[in-house]
């Protein structure tokens, strides 16, 4: 992890242990929804405590499911984030929303009554935009029950309450689909497992609601103790292409806390595949095309000379093994540097940028993403503070 400052330094206290082994990572609204390569809240919280004690505005350029946004709100800091994945934005909005608990409980009671006595006439789709072969991914009985739940949600007019139900529905879609739950990518169960697979759709949804409601209760209690109500905003602009000045003003951000992708979605974490089924049921646009829009989604035709010696050396070693693969890797770092250049314009003088990164291996070569992030920021006038190395107790990553 790299923390970059422009240009003032602060004394770093208790910055040695970043393992958080045994820590509860699914408390508050962090429990709402699983998401690939999710930054645990303890990291975002500790970075805010170290570098954002006087911060008024946090920005996350790759907000994902909104971990850093929630942690900012808990500390009385306004938060803004952006992400290209519409499902990620929905989760982040839900996690940072504050629904009226009494109205929410009324809707939860109505839902339980609804599933006990659902309407007999419900429109069951034969196809859904964004899903090829609906019957391949969902059993007919599952499709019918999901359609019923969707009908209930579509009648909710209160946005925070609607978001609460939508995130529970999103996970219900995935858990009741024919795709293996231990993978982020879409892999259908084998025929033997599928024959015995008979998910309790209403029961899954009820369990998600119960879990999320308990997490929300604690979040609302902590927020009420703050004495002020910080706000969170979630946007859809691409920081590689630019940052709209009328959305977030230049030099207005006190701290950036973020975790960029480990690499291009084609070969690392397939966010689009993970999101596809839920996003299609929720009617979220272009979720099935998201992987090609993320960093490194478009391959580079020329090998750039980065202002990062260690990165250039790593790319040279990969080129010697597989030139095509080297160009794929370079495309990611081209986009990462463009994004960082645009992010730097937002940070006020004396503000901080904290990037949580992973140094993955390609063709046996370790890519020095931590050094590259440091070098890129220094190109734009930032001073390096420190790198904190974390030992990860548990990883959920593809075998390859």
Strand content: 5-15%
The amount of helix comes to 40-55%
Low-confidence stretches: 7-12
Q: Care to count the β-strands?
A: 9
Calculate the terminal CA-CA distance, rounded to whole Å: 23 Å
What gyration radius follows from the Cα positions, in whole Å?
22 Å
SSE order in H/E notation?
EHEHEHHHHHHHEEHHHEEEHE
Provide an overview of this structure:
The chain is an alpha/beta fold. The protein has helices at 41-51, 67-74, 86-95, 101-116, 134-137, 140-154, 159-176, 191-196, 201-224, 271-282, 309-321, 323-344, 369-379; strands at 2-5, 57-60, 78-82, 232-235, 253-258, 347-355, 361-362, 365-366, 383-387. The chain has a seven-stranded mixed sheet with strand order 4-3-2-5-6-1-9, with helices on both faces. It has a two-stranded antiparallel sheet with strand order 7-8. Helix 2 links the parallel strand 2 and strand 3 (78-82). Helix 6 (140-154) packs antiparallel against helix 7 (159-176), helix 7 (159-176) crosses helix 9 and helix 12 crosses helix 13 (369-379). The longest helix has 24 residues, at 201-224. It is globular. The protein starts with a strand and ends in a 13-residue tail after the last strand.
